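pls design
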């Protein structure tokens, strides 16, 4: 009889812990009118952008007014995204969950949607830490409680203070401030913010002329709509073997001629490589992936075909 390798047992326990504490699944990507591509993550029943909005145009191609980059810097924009007034982000709407500056199929999250996110992450008192990117490369020390277990990878993009005089950029590396689509009066709207010295996700009501970051959330799809959109022949199977070393097989089916992307991600939602990124005719497919250049751990593979995306988890054990 074979004895169970103790090192392998430890690895399995570590991976099991990662599975239990990972609170998100890498989803797919979304592209705005300007061609900016954003990573997305599924957290509970919500799908969020994992990056701050950088768009200068609404989805219909019209320019977004009053949008700026921190210190008017292209290099800072690439890291932290752009800053928007509330009216610009909302495209002058006052309706909660309006599309505003978001790409098609997405919208500006309401206060209630932020609350749902916080609750899923264990409550407002600790949710901020689970949203924040780890380390002090971008966040000022001590970056209290930062684990990024949500996969949102939130960075402290600061703000443009257009209320007090003089108007200035400030608090970069210390605060991440986001508009919600919830207004609290003619002059003010609700914001959500995270700080470098707290694990909490905070609420504040402030003036709409301020310029803050934007995180978009995907529109909800009803069950009926899902049946219409998702082809009956679309299927992504669990990889086999699983766990594997170092190769595994992934099978999938599509019932239309589509551009197909099959991608592998790490637990931070970072794209490692594309297995497939090409046009495919309808049918059944099988792909073998080789992870010999990577460390043991939990990984995700995601199939995107047309408007449909499905993601599954796999375990690589050396």
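designed seq:
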């Amino acid at each position: 009889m074979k004895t169970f390798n103790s090192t392998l047992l430890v690895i399995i326990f570590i991976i099991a812990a990662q599975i239990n504490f990972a609170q998100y699944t890498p989803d797919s990507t979304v592209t705005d009118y300007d061609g900016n591509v954003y990573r997305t993550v599924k957290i509970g029943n919500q799908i969020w952008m994992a990056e701050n909005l950088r768009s200068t145009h609404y989805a219909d191609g019209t320019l977004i007014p009053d949008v700026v980059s921190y210190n008017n810097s292209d290099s800072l924009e690439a890291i932290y995204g752009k800053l928007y007034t509330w009216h610009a982000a909302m495209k002058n709407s006052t309706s909660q969950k309006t599309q505003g500056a978001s790409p098609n199929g997405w919208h500006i999250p309401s206060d209630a949607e932020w609350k749902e996110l916080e609750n899923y992450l264990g409550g407002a008192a600790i949710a901020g830490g689970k949203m924040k990117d780890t380390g002090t490369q971008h966040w000022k020390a001590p970056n209290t409680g930062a684990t990024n277990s949500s996969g949102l990878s939130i960075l402290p993009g600061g703000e443009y203070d257009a209320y007090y005089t003089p108007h200035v950029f400030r608090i970069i590396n210390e605060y991440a401030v986001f508009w919600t689509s919830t207004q609290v009066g003619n002059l003010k709207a609700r914001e959500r913010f995270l700080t470098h010295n707290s694990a909490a996700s905070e609420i504040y009501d402030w003036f709409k002329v301020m310029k803050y970051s934007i995180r978009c959330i995907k529109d909800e799809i009803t069950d009926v709509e899902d049946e219409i959109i998702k082809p009956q022949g679309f299927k992504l199977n669990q990889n086999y073997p699983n766990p594997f070393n170092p190769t595994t097989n992934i099978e999938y089916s599509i019932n239309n001629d589509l551009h197909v992307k099959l991608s592998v991600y790490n637990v931070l939602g970072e794209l490692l490589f594309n297995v497939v990124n090409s046009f495919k005719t309808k049918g059944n497919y099988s792909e073998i992936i080789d992870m010999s250049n990577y460390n043991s751990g939990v990984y995700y593979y995601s199939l995107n075909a047309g408007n449909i995306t499905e993601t599954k988890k796999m375990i690589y054990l050396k």
